[in-house]
Amino acid sequence: MIIETILNNNAVVVRHEQRETIIVERGIGFHAKKGETLTLRDSMKVYVPEDQTKLKIAAKTIASLPSEYLTLAARIVQEAEVQLQTTFNSYLLIELADHLHFAVMRLHDNLLLHNRLLWEIQMAYEQEYRMGKWALEAVAEQLGETLPEDEAGFIALKFVSNDLNHQQPVDSLAFTQMLANVTKIIFYRLGLDMNTKTPEYQRLAIHLKFFLQRVYAHTDKQEASYDHALLAHLQEDYVQAYQCMEDVVQFIEQKVNVPVSKNEQIYLTLHISRLAASHAQNLKSS
């Protein structure tokens, strides 16, 4: 590999196998010189842009960042790959460094972004969210900056969307938004206050997460046999829950053009019914 451009103390552009590649490693650009030969090491993070346009964007982004953000992002990505037992798209390093830098700048300007999907992200991507929290601790330790918890959710979605080993059937943000929308429909249809701190909400969110994952994955591509008698019973004796389920199914099928199987309809109706019964019991007890 031949060094072509030094972006900063921690990043250089090299020519490797007839392609321009960005190499990131702590201190790699400190004493480097254009034209020098560089030997690839395991400690290096390698980003191979798809074309010249993306190379220029990535190089410009890196050059604009204080070098400590690349070092920090590399540490976070490395730890996340170990803890989540996966491999990320190489661009995550640059994307995360840029995100953290912008988040700190917003913090200094008192421009804090509220993550309206924070709870849903915690439910849908529990492990990634936990790593997002760890990333905030690393930011505090390495930069002395205390970012709000909302940022853990934003970072978690970056882990999900850049995961090469566990590709999602749908964009992670779209999935999380769908989870939030379906939850709102259910609470609105049942006339309940949507308090994310209640056990009822949290329990439903967990069930909806796995329900939506199955729907998006389209695991029931050929309608399996289902309990006709149970479905009829729910339709007749649990009218409110059944009609609520129909609203949810209609919304999902309109939005993503994926059919919801009868088995999933039964599953969803039962959980909606459980939520309504739990709320009614709480009213009696209060």
UniProtKB/TrEMBL annotation:
Keywords: Repeat. Coiled coil: none annotated. It holds the Pfam family CAT_RBD. SUPFAM superfamilies: PTS-regulatory domain, PRD (SSF63520), SacY-like RNA-binding domain (SSF50151). The keyword DNA damage does not apply. It comes from the Bacteria. GO terms for biological process: regulation of DNA-templated transcription. The keyword Repeat applies. Gene3D superfamilies: CAT RNA-binding domain, PRD domain. GO terms for molecular function: RNA binding. InterPro entries: BglG_antiterminators, CAT_RNA-bd_dom, CAT_RNA-bd_dom_sf, PRD, PRD_sf. Residues 64-169, 170-282 form the PRD domain. This is Beta-glucoside operon antiterminator. It comes from Lacticaseibacillus zeae DSM 20178 = KCTC 3804.
